[in-house]
Amino acid sequence: MRPRVPPRLWNPNAGSGLSVGVLTLALIGRTVYAAGSFTTCGGQPRNNIAAVDAVTGLATAWNPNANGVISDLVTQGGTVYAGGSFTNIGGLARNFIAALDTTTGNATA
Predict the structure, then answer these.
(1) CB 20 within 8 A of CB 36
(2) pLDDT computed for residue 14 by the predictor
(3) C or N terminus of the chain, fewer CB within 10 Å?
(4) Are the C-beta atoms of 34 and 50 separated by less than 8 Å?
(5) Where along the chain do its domains lie?
(6) CATH top-level class for 21-101?
(7) Pick from 85, 83, 81, 56: which is nearest to 69 by CA?
(8) How many degrees, rounded to 5, is the angle at CA 46 between CA 44 and CA 49?
C-alpha cells in the first residue's frame, strides 16, 4: 500500500473587507496574473492586480499597484495588458488601459 500524500494547498486568498475579488486571470509560464478588486493577494498587500507563483500561490515581487478595478487581462510575450476603471497603474498615469512589463510591473512607454 502506498503512503497517502496530502494534496498541495494553493490559496492566494485575494481579498479585503469590501472586495469584489478576482475578475480575471492570465498565465505566463509559472506565473498567474490575477486582477479585479482586492487589496491583498498571495500573502502580500496588492492593489487590484498581482502575480502569484502557480505552484505555491505566493505573491511575486511584481506589483503595478492599480488605483482602480481591473476587469480584463491579456498577456503576450513580456507584457501584461490590463483594462478597467483605473487612472494610475505601474507607476504612471494610464486611463483605463495599460501595458505592463512582466519583469518590473512598470507601465510601458
Answers:
(1) yes
(2) 84
(3) N
(4) yes
(5) 21-101
(6) mainly beta
(7) 85
(8) 130
Enter the DSSP assignment of 105: -
Q: What residues does 107 pair with on adjacent strands?
A: 100
Place of cell 510601458: 108
Cα angle: 51, vertex 48, 61; to 5 degrees:
30
| Neighbouring residues of 99: CB distance < 8 A, sequence distance ≥ 6 | 79, 80, 81, 82, 107, 108
**What Cα–Cα distance (Å) separates residue 4 from each residue in 1, 7, 9, 18, 21?**
9, 9, 15, 39, 34
At position 61, the amino acid (one-letter code) is A
Positive or negative: CA dihedral 71, 40, 51, 103 = positive
Q: Read off the pLDDT of residues 4-31 as tens digits, 9 standing for 90 and up.
A: 655 567 888 888 756 678 999 999 999 9
Q: Which of 28, 31, 34, 30 is nearest to 75 (CA)?
A: 28
Tens digits of residue pLDDT in 25-42? 999 999 999 999 999 999
